[in-house]
Every structure is written in structure tokens, then in C-alpha cells.
Design brief:
The protein is α+β, with helices and mostly antiparallel strands. Among the domains are: 161 residues, BirA Bifunctional Protein, domain 2; 121 residues, no CATH class. It is 40% helix and 19% strand. The strands form four sheets. It has a five-stranded antiparallel β-sheet with strand order 1-3-5-4-2, with helices on both faces. The chain has a three-stranded antiparallel β-sheet with strand order 6-7-8. Strands 9-10-11 form a three-stranded antiparallel β-sheet, with helices on both faces. Helix 3 runs antiparallel to helix 4. It is globular. This is Relaxase. It comes from Flavobacterium humi. InterPro entries: Endonuclease_MobA/VirD2. Pfam families: Relaxase (PF03432).
């Protein structure tokens, strides 16, 4: 069994992700601990939030107080609901969170039935619960649970891969090939993306890009991929590396298969609705572009914007760390396309959200002026009181990056590197103005 521990600052996104699984019939609340009960046994996200509210209000400046843990037995293990409940209780107790409020969700949307645990890592007095040697302790608890319940042991090779900390490529530190390999061999195992553009958006967070190459071999057309490292300006800074150097999973054919598989998997997934709702919710809550980006990060969503030399936005991609999915803006809906965000940045036509009975529609400001205004209502106001201005422009792009890949714990090297790059760009812009 493998445990994956994620930390974040936005409770709403985590609860929404799990609640949508329940609403779609692909999940259920299996167990609760110190959660306020309801008369009918139905739990809404707003009701669940109240059980965590005292802990978050008391929080003493822990930046990422939300815990999102998954326990993943081998697909061949047949674990009953009672066993999952016992395993969750033992895991939380031995990790030091047994007295915390927590929820256990069972997910059945994939062949590997597993559980997600949502909790907080600060106690009632707002003090952070120690996470010292957390990975080592977590692995030990998993081994104990395997022995106790007769589960199939996690292979050492798989476990070592999961424990890897992924770093953005540093083109100046040498051994670029190995740096690129450590990323491109793993991304398709964890993330769903449907096009090369979406794949490159994800790669760009690691200072990598790929390009399709075409040619002929023995008179027959051939297609392939090459990879490059990027510098702090997003420009190629290395010679090309053929995909074959990194194994089949990084190659053209396997990625095409991954695009197809992701497309089919996401047809029935609730991830699209979850991501779109969160983006629309944030659009409704702010009129400032930079704050919009910061709030997205706090909700576990990275945004990659592509512009041409004139500054026109021609592409926008959202990377959701909660569902591990990548979405071109127009795939989420024409209201979230690059053109809409280009009108915001370059023409001052801010996207706005109009609430309807069944969904939300994003409108430009000129369109919305013809409609009655509606007051937005945030069910999680106590979280919104944490000012996003506490996060600077650089960190807003990649805050919470530790949740991008499983077990990416420790210092957020990706966050710091990306922040440094953006600060350098900002300084250069200031000098040129």
C-alpha cells in the first residue's frame, strides 16, 4: 500500500473534489471523526467546513494547514469498508492526527479502489502538528498495515519512484539529460492531458519543452519528439534530446496513446466540472488579474498563459493539482478561452460570472452590463480573510507546487525557482519602463 500526502491552503477545493465524486456516484463518505453530525446523514461542503473552521481560525501562520491524504492498496487487494475505516483510523493515529477532525472518502471511479482523508495539521490552539520524518513514518505505518491486514506489499521500486522529489531543470548545473529524464519518465504516470500543448504546459513548470519532429527513414515517414531545457526566460537553453533516451513513456507513440486514454477517461470524470466551477468562483470573487492568479494557486490550480510577440494571449492552460488533470481553457468552455482572457488583459474587458440555476456562465464586462447585478456569496468567508496579498507575484504562480506530484515533500524547490525567474523578469520590465 502506498500513502500520498498532500498539503494545501484551500479547503474548498479539496472538499469540492471529493464531494463531486460522491454526487456522481463514484465515491462515498466512509467515516468521520470529530465532524458535526447532521439529522439526515447528508453532508454538504458548507456543513463539513464548520467542523474545521475553529482550527483554521486559530491557525498560527501555517501556510498549508489542509491535509489531503490518499491510501492506495494494490488493485488486487479486496478491502472491505470496515477495513478501510480501521486502516484510516490507525494511520491517522500513528501519524499524530488521530485527535483531529477528519473525513474519509472512498473512491471507486477507477479499478484501484482507494480512500482519501481530508483533515488539518494544526490543533485547536492553532499550533502545527509536527511532521518531522513524516515520509519515513508514513512508510512504516503502511508496512504495518500491510502485515496486519494481509495486503500485497508495495514493491520497493514503485515506492522509491513515489518518494522522488521532482525539481525543475537547472540548465546551468549540468547533467541536463538526467534532470529531464527524472521528470518526463514520471509525468504520464500521474497526470491526464489530451494534447501536446497541454503536455508542454505541464512540462514548462519544470523548465522543459518538447517538439514534434518529422522525417523519413528508408523512404517511410517517421514522427518523434525531442526535449529541450528552458532558461529563466522560457527560451531553449540546451541541445535537443531524443525522446528515445528517456524510455517509451516519454516517446511520441506512448504519448499519443496517453492522449487517447486521457480523453476517454475524462469523458466520465467530474474533474472538468470541478475545475471550471472553481475558476468561475474565483472570477466572481475578484476584479484583479493578479489576485485571480493568486487565488487559483491557493485552490490548487496553476495557470500557464501563452502570448505572442505583440502581447496577445493566444493560449491558456489550467493545471489542477487536486484531480491531476490539465485543461486547455477552451476545453473547459468557450467562456474560459484564451480570447476571453486576452480581452481582460489587453482590452480591459474583465470576465464576470453570472449565476444561473444549473451552472455559471463567464461574460465579458460589456456583456454583463446589460444584466442585473448579483451579489456573490462565498460559503467559506473565513478562509477568504487570509489576504492573498501576503503572497508576492512570483510565488503566486506556483505556490503549493509540492502537490503537483505524489510525495513531492520537503522544500518547494519548484516554487522558489519559478519565483526567482519571475522576479528577474519583473525587474527587467521595470528597468525598461
Amino acid at each position: 500500500m502506498i500513502a500520498k500526502i498532500g498539503r494545501g491552503s484551500n479547503l474548498y477545493g479539496v472538499l469540492l473534489y471529493n464531494q463531486l465524486k460522491v454526487e456522481k456516484g463514484n465515491g462515498r463518505i466512509l467515516f468521520t471523526n470529530k465532524i458535526i453530525e447532521t439529522a439526515d446523514g447528508y453532508y454538504s461542503s458548507a456543513q463539513l467546513t464548520r467542523s474545521f473552521e475553529p482550527y483554521l481560525i486559530a491557525n498560527r501562520n501555517t501556510e498549508k494547514p489542509i491535509l489531503h491524504i490518499s491510501l492506495n492498496p494494490d488493485p488486487k487487494d479486496n478491502v472491505s469498508n470496515n477495513r478501510f475505516k480501521e486502516m484510516a483510523e490507525q494511520y491517522m493515529q500513528e501519524m499524530g492526527y488521530g485527535e483531529q477532525p477528519f473525513l474519509v472518502f472512498k473512491h471507486t471511479d477507477i479499478d484501484r479502489t482507494h480512500i482519501h482523508i481530508v483533515s488539518v495539521c494544526v490543533d485547536e490552539e492553532g499550533k502545527k502538528i509536527s511532521d518531522k520524518f513524516e515520509k519515513r513514518r508514513s512508510m512504516n505505518v503502511c508496512r504495518d498495515l500491510e502485515n496486519k491486514y494481509g495486503l500485497i506489499p508495495a514493491a520497493d521500486k514503485v515506492r522509491n519512484q513515489s518518494d522522488t522529489i521532482f525539481h525543475p531543470v537547472d540548465y546551468q548545473s549540468g547533467d541536463i539529460k538526467s534532470q529531464i529524464a527524472s521528470v518526463v519518465r514520471q509525468l504520464p504516470n500521474y497526470y491526464q492531458f489530451q494534447t501536446l500543448g497541454e503536455y508542454n504546459a505541464l512540462l514548462s513548470l519544470f523548465n522543459i519543452t518538447s517538439e514534434e519532429v518529422r522525417g523519413e527513414l528508408d523512404g517511410k515517414p517517421r514522427q518523434g519528439l525531442v526535449y529541450f531545457a528552458l532558461n529563466e526566460n522560457g527560451k531553449k537553453s540546451s541541445n535537443p534530446f531524443k525522446a528515445s533516451l528517456f524510455g517509451k513513456s516519454a516517446g511520441y507513440i506512448e504519448l499519443q496513446n496517453h492522449f487517447t486514454a486521457s480523453k476517454e477517461a475524462l469523458k466520465e470524470s467530474d474533474a472538468k466540472l470541478s475545475v471550471r466551477k472553481e475558476i468561475e468562483r474565483i472570477l466572481q470573487s475578484t476584479t484583479d488579474e493578479q489576485e485571480f492568479k493568486k487565488l487559483l494557486i491557493k485552490s490548487g490550480i496553476n495557470v500557464i498563459i501563452r502570448k505572442n510577440e505583440t502581447g496577445r494571449i493566444y493560449g491558456i492552460t489550467f493545471i489542477d493539482r487536486n484531480s491531476k488533470t490539465v485543461w486547455n481553457g477552451s476545453r473547459l468552455g468557450k467562456e474560459l478561452s484564451a480570447n476571453v482572457f486576452n480581452d481582460w488583459r489587453n482590452n480591459g474587458l474583465r470576465p464576470e460570472v453570472k449565476n444561473t440555476k444549473d451552472t455559471q456562465t463567464v461574460l465579458t464586462k460589456t456583456e454583463s452590463e446589460r444584466l442585473p447585478t448579483e451579489n456573490s456569496h462565498d460559503l467559506f468567508d473565513f478562509l477568504s480573510n487570509q489576504s492573498p496579498s501576503q503572497v508576492d507575484d512570483g510565488h503566486s504562480i506556483i505556490e503549493g507546487f509540492g502537490g503537483l506530484l505524489p510525495e513531492a515533500q520537503g522544500e518547494d524547490y519548484q516554487e522558489q525557482a519559478f519565483a526567482d525567474r519571475l522576479k528577474k523578469k519583473k525587474k527587467r520590465r521595470n528597468r525598461n519602463t
